[in-house]
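As noted in the main text, all predictions were made from sequence alone. Below is one such record, for Acetyl-coenzyme A synthetase.
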Amino acid sequence: MSDQGSAPGVYHASADFIANAHIDADGYARMYEASVADPDAFWAEQAQRIDWIKPFTKVKNSTFDYGNVSIKWFEDGTLNVSASCIDRHMLTRADQTAIIWEPDNPATPSLHITYRQLLENTSRMANVLKAQGVGKGDRVVLYLPMIPEAAYAMLACARIGAIHSVVFAGFSPDALANRINDSEAKVVITADFAPRGGKKTALKSNTDKALFDCSDRVKCLVVKHTGDQTTWIEGRDVDVKAEMAAAKPYCAYVEVGAEDPLFILYTSGSTGRPKGVVHTSGGYLVYAAMTHQYTFDYHDGDVFWCTADVGWVTGHSYIIYGPLANGATTIMFEGVPTFPDAGRFWEVCAKHKVTQFYTAPTAIRSLMGMGTDWVEKHDLSSLKLLGTVGEPINPEAWNWYNTHVGKGKCPIVDTFWQTETGGHLITPLPGAIGQKPGAATKPFFGIKPLVLDPANAEVQTETAAVGVLCITDSWPGMMRTLWGDHARFEEAYFSQYRGYYFTGDGCRRDEDGDYWITGRVDDVINVSGHRMGTAEVESALVAHEAVAEAAVVGYPHDIKGQGIYAYVTLMNGVDPTDALRKELEVWVRTEIGPIAKPDLIQWAPGLPKTRSGKIMRRILRKIAENDFAALGDTSTLADPSVVDDLIDNRMNRG
Ligand code: ATP
Ligand code: MG
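Prediction:
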């Protein structure tokens, strides 16, 4: 992106890109206005992008009124999500690649799965599930590597009206058992092993452990992926590949209501006990498809790569449902960015001529720490657009991404959204909206954001404002409830700011009306009466050349109320000296101001992260508070061992 906008710091797509884009600036203004002025008319039209069995007559029916929260879209329509993602493409693109599967080990050949093959394999998987007694409304837990069977299984559930709940393959047996029990699943689908970064996770053995704590009736379907030996319990375990081979190659899809659940997905757990977010069929699919097309400016013939895991909502909406509903070619990557080397992402981009690349800031920062040689080695000329998701992207990482990956010619869409929202809420549409490094910019169609003062819940009416981010009204892709706990749903999202959906995030709206997400409200610290988002301090730290990653939390401080505690991961090869500690303090002081100077800096070789790459600040907070006896649920951590090291080397021994 070149800084060619009228205002400094605003980046615009090239004239060619804009000329070719689905939505330009005028189009955005016109459509946004239509979407909020008459949501029924707007969404009735947008809903035609998927296939309906019985057309709906009602569009929107929702209230955010605390105590009565209810959200319904297209409620009397019927459809089948797998039919919209597969069958309807049979006439036009049966032999087009639907999914490119890229294995963990680059020496293993990749697979190109056509829409025709996707239909057959999904059907076979659906027939296997039916043979196990799975039917409409039943829950199926998926605990799988990033292999084609994960896609077949999700779509097979959709085909027969079962509700899937994907659990990331890196989760512990405990986390898996919790989710199987909470959703009262009939079946869990797993694999023998999950190869990742050249190592193997013993998924089947984890599942055996989890099932120890579950009902005896839960069946265990096993995909023999690596072929390594595992235990086998006759009568409970089922060989998926063998059953699929023997099953009929076609399975008729069932008709489901627009408001029948499509999936349950437990949030990543960065803030507490995981919540079983429920998404339904019609509205979710319309929203996933539409955001995929417009945010990424997807065109026929493009090759779309979202690097997320299907265990995360990003994988649901932007590897599977959105792209497939649009008849796209989507990449499913089994591996990690650093195996066999730090050039893997770029090697895969070159190999499959990826046009849109979508990843998380944490991945960008970690690759940034490895130097630019890994990027320069590969031909990235096919790239047209880049995207990020998951946390605020610090300008340092944005600039690196823009310069070294996008070569200054790819718009970067910073997409703000949540498991709960089903799809993007705030993001620059690339042909329409100028980008600012670190800003999610403008709302998607139908989204009405509000900034509220957390002190008195007053709506901030000035354009430039700071506060908490709420949304005024429902949109088709939003969650409908928490599984089995509607009261907790209302409590968590609708009780604090009555009449609005509360995102839990803080934000700033600038003079141009662009939104900057400042991180979770829980992550705000109050130093000597000044409220400060931890993201801001982290961003300043990361801007220092010696720092690869940083996490900042508050801790009780006698004088200031809260002190600033920074965990800092240094770049490869940098020595953690006291001089450097001083230098970083001065650095933050000059970057932000004296108030932001960290009180304690701990060198952290690793940070506790969820499997989706997010820092678990609640754990860091406990360590900083010297209260590490009660760390809470750590079962969703990517690498629990980093916590011990942080405790051993903590700076606040109180
Ligand atoms: P839990 O709710 O269990 O704590 P989580 O919030 O990490 O987990 P997700 O739904 O995956 O689970 O993440 C959504 C959150 O991620 C948002 O609320 C926001 O804090 C952050 N986020 C996502 N995208 C962006 C973005 N583009 N910019 C800033 N923050 C983002
Ligand atoms: Mg959340």
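The CA atoms of residues 219 and 505 lie 39 Å apart. DSSP finds 21 helices and 30 strands in the chain. These features were considered when defining construct boundaries for the mutagenesis experiments described in Section 2.9.
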